[in-house]
Specification:
By secondary structure, the chain is of the alpha+beta class. The chain has 19 helices and 23 strands.
C-alpha cells in the first residue's frame, strides 16, 4: 500500500469493466463503449481511434498496430500483427544507386504502408460486437469538433516542433499561427474527421482505396516515395502465434518477431535468477544488474530481430534457459562490463498502449503507434492522415536482418503484453517508449511480482534505461543523487533523461474477489476508469 500522505494515486478498483489508456478522454470513450454493450475489443478500438485524433504525436491511422486478445472462457491468447511493410519497389539496389546510405525520420522512404486501419477492421470483424461506425464515432466527434490539448500532449507538440515545421501541410494543421499548441487550447482536424467517416462507411477500403489512398500516395510520390496502389492493396495484417515464458507462476505472452517481445521475455528469463537485493528495486546493486542484462539483450536485439518471412530468427534458442544462464553469467556483479562479451549464439544474416477488460472477462491488450514523435512529419493534406516513420527500422546493409526489401516488415518496438495464470488471462499490460518497451516490460513485471507493488505503484516508480544506440544510461530525475554516484563508480555513464521514460497501463484481474485493479502511468495524461 502506498503512503497516503505522499503524492501519488491509488489503483482504480471496479467490479464490472475497466479501461486504462494514456489519455482520460480515450479511457472515458472506452468505458462508455463497455457500458453500452460493447466488449473489450470494441472498447479498445474505440479508445485507440480517439487517441489517433487527440494524441497525434504518438499514434494515428497512418501508423501500425499490434494486439493480444484473450476471449472469455478460453485458454487461447490471440495475437495480431498489424505492422506495415516496405513498398514493393523498395529494392536495396535503388537506394544504392541513389547514394542513400541511411533512412532518416522525415524521408518518404521512412513511411511503410500503414497497417493500423486494416488491423482495426479485422479485429473488429472477428472479435467485436459493435459496428466499426459505432467504434469510430467518438473519434470523429473529437476530430470535427475539436479536443483540448493536455499537458503531456502540449509537451509532445513542443518537443516535435522542428519535425512538424518540416512539412508545410503538417505545420498548417499542427501549429497555431506558427507556434506549438499550448495546454487547454482546442485543436481541430476536420479532414481527418471526414476520413474517419469514410472508413466508418466503407471499412478498410475507405482507407486503402479511393480518395484517401490517392491523397496519401500523391503526397508520398511528390516527395520521391516509391509507394503504389499495389502496396495498399496488399496491406493486410496477420494473425500470428504468440510466444511466452514463465515468470514466477505466470505465463507472460508477447507477439512474435518482427516485434521485440522476444527480448522482453529474454530479459525476464535472465532476471528470474538475479536477487532482489532487498525490498527496494532502486538500490545500486539491483539497478546495475538490470542495466547489464539490458545491454546484453539489446545487443542481441540489434543482431537477430527482423521479419521472420525474410530470414530465420532463433526465437527458441533466445528463450532457452541455457541462453539466459549464459547471459546472466556474463554480468559482473560489481562493475559495468566493457566491451560486451562475444555472442554465444550463431550469427544470423539477417506508441499508445491500451488495456481493457469487460464484464464477461474478455481481455484486450492493444498498442498503436506512429513511432517517433509525429512519425515522419509527412501529412497527406486532403485526408488529414499523418504518416509514421517505421521504415527507419530498416538498414541498408545487405548482411543485416533488417536490410530493406520489397514487402518486408522492419524491426518493431511496440509490444502489447498479457499475463495468464493456469491458462486464464489475469492482466493485460503494456509499456510505451520506443526502444524502452522490452526493458519496460521487465521493469513493470518485476516490480509487481518480485517487490509486491500494486499495478499503480509499479508504474509510478522512477525509471532508467541503458540506451542501446549510445554509451550511456538515462535515469529519471527522481532517482536519488547518491544512487547515481554509486552507479558512476561501478562504471556506468549516467545522464539525466531529457523526457520521461516511457508510459504504461495495466489491469489486474482479482479472480477471487471478482474485481479489476487498474493503473495508468503518471508520465502521460491518462487514467484507468472502471464501473
Amino acid at each position: 500500500m502506498r503512503n497516503l500522505q505522499a503524492p501519488g494515486r491509488s489503483p482504480v478498483i471496479a467490479p464490472n469493466g475497466m479501461a486504462s489508456t494514456s489519455h482520460s478522454l480515450a479511457t472515458e470513450a472506452a468505458v462508455a463503449m463497455l457500458s453500452s454493450g460493447g466488449n473489450a475489443m470494441d472498447a479498445a478500438l474505440t479508445a485507440c481511434a480517439v487517441q489517433a485524433v487527440i494524441e497525434p504525436g504518438s499514434t494515428g491511422i497512418g501508423g501500425d498496430c499490434f494486439c493480444l486478445y484473450a476471449p472469455a472462457g478460453s485458454t487461447n491468447t490471440v495475437a495480431f500483427n498489424g505492422s506495415g511493410r516496405a513498398p514493393l519497389k523498395n529494392n536495396l539496389s535503388w537506394f544504392q544507386e541513389q547514394g542513400i546510405t541511411k533512412i532518416t525520420q522525415t524521408m518518404p522512404h521512412a513511411v511503410t504502408i500503414p497497417g493500423a486501419v486494416d488491423a482495426w477492421f479485422q479485429l473488429n470483424r472477428d472479435h467485436g460486437q459493435k459496428s466499426l461506425a459505432d467504434i469510430l464515432q467518438p473519434a470523429i466527434n473529437y476530430a470535427r469538433d475539436g479536443y483540448p490539448v493536455g499537458q503531456r500532449i502540449a509537451f509532445d507538440f513542443a518537443t516535435a516542433y522542428d519535425v512538424i515545421k518540416s512539412d508545410p501541410d503538417t505545420a498548417a494543421l499542427f501549429l497555431n499561427k506558427g507556434e506549438s499548441y499550448k495546454i487547454g487550447q482546442r485543436h481541430h482536424q476536420p479532414a481527418l474527421a471526414k476520413t474517419l467517416e469514410t472508413i466508418a462507411a466503407h471499412g478498410r477500403d475507405g482507407f486503402y482505396k479511393g480518395a484517401v489512398a490517392d491523397d496519401i500516395l500523391g503526397k508520398l510520390n511528390s516527395l520521391g516515395g516509391l509507394h503504389t496502389q499495389a502496396d495498399f492493396d496488399t496491406a493486410i495484417g496477420d494473425y500470428v502465434t504468440p510466444i511466452k515464458t514463465r515468470y514466477r507462476d505466470y505465463d507472460i505472452w508477447e507477439c512474435p518477431p518482427n516485434g521485440q517481445g522476444v527480448f522482453a521475455l529474454l530479459l525476464l528469463n535472465i532476471m528470474a535468477q538475479i536477487p532482489t537485493f532487498g525490498d527496494n528495486p532502486l538500490t545500486p546493486k539491483r539497478i546495475h544488474h538490470e542495466i547489464e542484462a539490458g545491454r546484453l539483450v539489446y545487443r542481441d536485439r540489434s543482431l537477430y530481430l527482423g521479419d521472420p518471412a525474410f530470414g530465420s530468427i532463433p526465437v527458441e534458442e533466445l528463450l532457452s534457459s541455457e541462453y539466459a544462464d549464459t547471459l546472466r553469467a556474463a554480468i559482473n556483479p560489481d562493475i559495468a562490463t566493457a566491451p560486451l562479451p562475444d555472442l554465444s549464439l550463431p550469427p544470423h544474416k539477417s506508441t499508445v498502449y491500451i488495456s481493457v477488460v469487460d464484464k464477461d472477462r474478455n481481455v484486450c491488450s492493444l498498442i498503436n503507434t506512429v513511432f517517433h514523435g509525429f512519425g515522419s512529419g509527412i501529412l497527406a493534406p486532403k485526408s488529414g492522415v499523418l504518416l509514421q516513420n517505421r521504415g527507419m527500422g530498416f538498414v541498408l546493409d545487405p548482411t543485416h536482418p533488417n536490410c530493406i526489401a520489397p514487402g518486408k516488415r522492419p524491426l518493431h518496438t511496440i509490444i502489447p503484453g498479457m499475463a495468464t495464470y493456469n491458462g486464464k488471462a489475469v492482466m493485460p499490460f503494456g509499456v510505451m517508449g520506443g526502444d524502452y518497451q522490452a526493458f519496460g516490460h521487465m521493469q513493470f513485471l518485476t516490480r509487481l511480482l518480485d517487490y509486491g507493488m500494486d499495478v499503480q505503484q509499479a508504474q509510478d516508480i522512477p525509471r532508467f534505461f541503458a540506451n542501446p544506440h549510445e554509451n550511456f544510461v538515462e535515469v529519471e530525475n527522481t532517482i536519488a543523487s547518491d544512487t547515481r554516484e554509486a552507479l558512476i563508480k561501478m562504471g556506468h555513464n549516467i545522464v539525466e533523461a531529457k523526457t520521461p521514460i516511457g508510459g504504461s497501463q495495466a489491469i489486474w484481474i482479482d479472480e477471487k474477489e471478482d474485481m479489476l485493479h487498474g493503473g495508468s502511468d503518471p508520465r502521460k495524461d491518462g487514467c484507468a476508469i472502471g464501473y
